[in-house]
Amino acid sequence: MKYYCIGIKGSGMATLAEILFDLGNTVSGYDDYKEYKFTQEGIDKRGIKIYYDSLHELDKDTIVTYSKAFSEEHPEIKRVKDLGLKIIDYNELLGKISGEFKTIGVSGTHGKTTTSTMISHVLRETKGCNCFIGDGTGFADKKNELFTLESCEFNKHFLSYHPYYAIVTNIELEHTECYKDINEIIDTFTEFANKANVVIACGDDLNVRKMNVNNKVIYYGFNDNNDVIAKNVKLTKTGSSFDVYMNGDLYGHFDIPLFGEHMILNALACITVCDMEGVSREDIHDLLKTFENAKRRFKEHTFGDVVTIDDYAHHPTEVKVTIESARQKYPNKEIVGVFLPNTYSRTEALMDGFIDALKTADKAYVMDIHCDRERQEDYPTASSDNIIKEVPNAEKISIETVEKLLKHDNAAICFMSCTNIYEILGKFEALLENKND
Questions:
Q1: Which of 138, 242, 300, 397 is the residue whose CA sits 20 to 30 A from 54?
Q2: What pLDDT digit, counting tens, does each position of 177-208 carry?
């Protein structure tokens, strides 16, 4: 079959395109963004064609799917409709694929990408596993039984999926443009969990515990009321170690080259599902010990005594744990946060959380809010300035003023956002390279 993916450089659409290609389909796509984007690595490797105009022809039997970041009035959307091509929603198409495999649906407000990457890493090296990971990483082989699917709650997309296992890492207020309150979010996660045969959920999270799950559920966490528990935790400059107990019995000791207690929770979800799939604890331990995190998840580069950290953090909890992780690994460095807020609705709804999270850095810089689907006038209090005035020693920064960061010596500088913060990061790293030459 022939598929045409509009917005193909988006992290989810890029991943879907890769999977469609791997399953034997002809795939091409369109995007407005002409510069190289990290999500297109897998697309380029497969030779999938990306168009940046509407001059190319499309066969009448082409099936179109498109990113919701593209409005119905976008010229390319209007063109495919005028051509009478069949259009399938992104989430519906992904849901159809999920029904063809034994799917591990990884959901949660935070930790989906890392947990999905961990699980697919262990299972691909042991049993064979397809994967859809929201950093632009996709892989599929028709011969594999298992499919690890990062399952996002945005616009209730994950309700289209068909999980055998439903993992729920945590539940917090997020996507306020889609949900009226936390209760609606909990209800939606409950509906997703109840689609699965087995639920694996973080029992330390109070909102997760509020889910009314009708099927088998296994809780994991640090607290004693869980089924799978991490004990004897040690957080060091080289990573984290812990013992795992299952139903009261010692299961094994694990070492991961990752930082922060949240990473241990992600590992517990991975260990639980891999154990249920019959992977030996020795294999799980060895593969987690060599695990490399997903794209744009605490990615580091060193320039003399300055370390840059690129992270997808875009929610207050994520910003806080990124800063905490930097402190764990670099206890003797100044910890600097550079934050690019994304969407007016999220910034307005979670303003207090962003303020508290950025206060944990030694120095904070905040960029103007990035938003391509909302109007500023609809969110009058959504302003980077309102964050800055409440965070001690914080100030505004932009690509044009990135030189400000050069005054920080012996520092770990965390660049945090789900949007194009890599542009200012790239400019700063170029300045560091010139400074050190």
A1: 138
A2: 889 999 999 999 999 999 999 999 999 999 99
Cα Rg for the chain, rounded, in angstroms? 22
Beta strand ranges found along 226-375 (DSSP E)? 228-236, 239-246, 249-256, 299-303, 306-311, 334-339, 363-366
Cβ 243 vs Cβ 253: under 8 Å: yes
Question: What token pair was written down for 417?
Answer: 């956002």
pLDDT in tens, 89-99: 999 999 999 99
Give Cβ neighbours of residue 329 (< 8 Å, ≥ 6 apart): 237, 259, 412
Angstrom distance (rounded) from CA 371 to CA 351? 16
Residue type, 236: T
Q: Give, in degrees to the nearest 5, the angle at Cα 155 between 114 and 200.
A: 40
CA separation for the pair 322, 300 (Å, rounded): 12
Task: With a cut of 70, say whether residue 437 has pLDDT above it.
Answer: no
Alpha helix (H) residue ranges in 35-102: 41-46, 75-82, 90-98
How many other C-beta atoms lie within 10 A of the C-beta of residue 41?
16
| Amino acid at position 21, single letter | F
Helix spans in 127-260 (H): 182-193, 206-209
- Burial class of 5 by CB neighbour count within 10 A (0 to 12, 13 to 18, 19+): buried
Q: What's the full length of the chain, in residues?
A: 437
pLDDT tens-digit series, residues 367-399: 999 987 788 889 988 999 999 999 998 999 999
Give the residue among 99, 390, 418, 112 at the shortest CA–CA distance from 265.
112
**Rounded-to-integer distance, Cα 402 and Cα 382, Å:** 23
Contact (Cβ atoms closer than 8 angstroms) between residue 385 and residue 369:
no
Written as six digits, the tokens of 74 are 């976008």
